[in-house]
What does this fold into?
Amino acid sequence: MEVQNPVIRIMLKHRNNTKSAWPWLTLSIGAIALLIHFFSSNSMEWIQYHRAAIETGAIWQLITGHFAHWNTEHLLADLAVFTVLGSMVETRSKKLLLLLVFGSALLISASVYFLRPTIEFYRGLSGIDMALAGFVFLDHCMQSKQKRNRFETIIWGTALLGVFLKPGIEIALGHPIFVQDLGKGIVGMPIPHILGAAFGITTILVAQKKSTATACCR
It folds into this structure.
């Protein structure tokens, strides 16, 4: 039976074209965030990004701070996006997933440290989520364009545009769109989202260029 709905066709095509391996790496990283949130509350000062602690040698917080969250709503929102997009990247390459997660984490933490010296604490996977989104949306947009599928190109291109519209809207509103209550005195930071998206887009462009160069050399 032929599926008429074009959106469903895109989803089915993605499912059929990807590997059947279970996305254990994505789920494992997500499980770490869950464990940190629900079982490490007494150790959060050692896990979250804390500028003063980093300056005294706690450099691991440049990475671990992204796996800490301000409340359960914050965690679940970040984790839902991470699980979906992380699984899509993992079906392509586990190495690329690790590069996106840890590369964007370091870039975002470094930007907060050097560009926002007044920010004492930082938590959340959302910047990494944006790196995954930039990678996945541009990857599928380029694939659709190569296949000359105008409808899919528009769908993924619109999603890619939304990656940059979201933090722009948040800057204008002065608060996050999806999780507005992060706690007393806690504010959202759109700039790390933009940097995360830029890292994801750069990663897929470099990966695509290397793939093309390898194919030409064969």
Notes: The CA atoms of residues 44 and 68 lie 7 Å apart.
